[in-house]
Design goal:
Blueprint lengths: L1 H14 L4 H18 L7 E2 L3 E6 L2 E10 L3 E5 L11 E6 L3 E10 L3 E6 L5 H41 L5 H4 L5 E2 L8 E2 L3 H13 L8 E8 L3 E2 L15 H7 L4 E2 L3 H9 L4 E6 L9 E11 L2 E11 L5
Antiparallel strand pairs: 1-3, 2-3, 2-5, 3-4, 4-7, 5-6, 6-7, 8-9, 10-15, 11-12, 13-14, 14-15
Length: about 300
């Protein structure tokens, strides 16, 4: 289902003007892929390695984004414009070659199911790598859980002391701030967020240890507060600066944030390329845990760690 929806959405994007319809199609694709992800035989973990994919008799150089016992997500090669069928072969550096089947695609990535390799050593190397990745990610998953617990505790205490109401905390009312680009929004609980969230996020933000950000994101993918370096006033004459360093009060409804903040019922590790000038296209490991308040999902605690081919 996910592959069918993704393919249809991609084709419709090509024949429709950019705008509301294209965005709704993208959201539908994200929802379908997220539902499909929960049916995986096992989790996938961020892992960047060089790869060669062979499709329709043509080889394309690319790299992995995340990897599992039975699946891999690859960066979509720029030269790969059309797909004739879903049968493929994938050669993963230092692991081996696997026959594979395409199960999902979008404009940036290809997701494939890995089939049994002809060489048993390849399966053994993959299994050993996944065990290592599980060990490596255990600590950061626990950190994301603590971040989420801190947010839950702060929200619950504010509700109990009547500094905040449930209607405010869970509000979907986002009002555009005039004259901002990228668009920023106010929220009924924005004053509370701006007072309470910075000291909590600061406990987990450690740039010297490779932490790119630690933010609280509500289920609408609204980030009310960011770190001081990325919470600067917008510069109307410098859109690149505003895009990159005025990251607060904004909505980030990409598929990674949607999965973290709305769809995933448990802590998740995923990888994506950031849209930031310090390392434009920088690959990061995003670790998130759901924030549940009084039995309701508020959103997620998200921590990102730098990730590249040298890791």
């Amino acid at each position: 289902m996910a592959l069918l929806v993704a393919g249809s959405a991609h084709r419709l994007r090509q024949i429709t003007a950019q705008g509301r319809l294209a965005k709704r199609l993208e959201r539908l694709e994200i929802a379908a892929r997220s539902m499909g992800a929960e049916r995986r035989m096992g989790p996938r973990m961020p892992h960047a390695c060089r790869a060669i994919i062979r499709l329709d008799g043509i080889e394309h150089a690319t790299a992995s984004i995340d990897l599992g016992h039975q699946g891999v997500m690859l960066e979509r090669p720029p030269a790969l414009l059309t797909l004739g069928n879903t049968e493929a072969t994938v050669r993963l550096e230092a692991i081996g070659t696997f026959p594979a089947k395409l199960v999902a695609l979008d404009v940036q990535t290809l997701s494939l199911k890995l089939l049994q390799p002809r060489e048993p050593a390849a399966a053994e190397r993959l299994s050993a790598l996944m065990q290592q990745l599980d060990r490596d990610n255990a600590a950061i998953l626990e950190t994301a859980r603590r971040f989420a617990d801190d947010l839950t505790g702060a929200f619950t205490e504010a509700l109990a002391s009547r500094r905040l109401t449930q209607a405010m905390l869970f509000s979907n009312e986002l009002s555009p701030i005039a004259g901002t680009s990228p668009q920023q929004f106010t929220h009924p609980a924005l004053g509370f967020f701006e007072h309470v969230l910075p000291p909590i996020a600061a406990r987990y933000y450690a740039p010297d240890k490779g932490v790119a950000y630690a933010v609280a994101t509500d289920r609408n993918c609204y980030v009310p507060v960011h770190h001081p370096a990325y919470q600067q006033p917008q510069r109307p004459d410098d859109p690149r600066f505003s895009h990159s360093f005025s990251r607060h009060r904004r909505i980030y409804d990409d598929r990674w944030t949607l999965r973290a903040a709305r769809f995933s019922p448990w802590p998740v590790v995923q990888a994506y390329r950031r849209d930031m000038p310090r390392g434009f296209g920088e690959l990061v490991r995003d670790v998130s845990a759901p924030v549940i308040v009084l039995g309701r999902r508020w959103g997620a605690a998200q921590i990102a760690y730098s990730l590249d081919l040298d890791d």
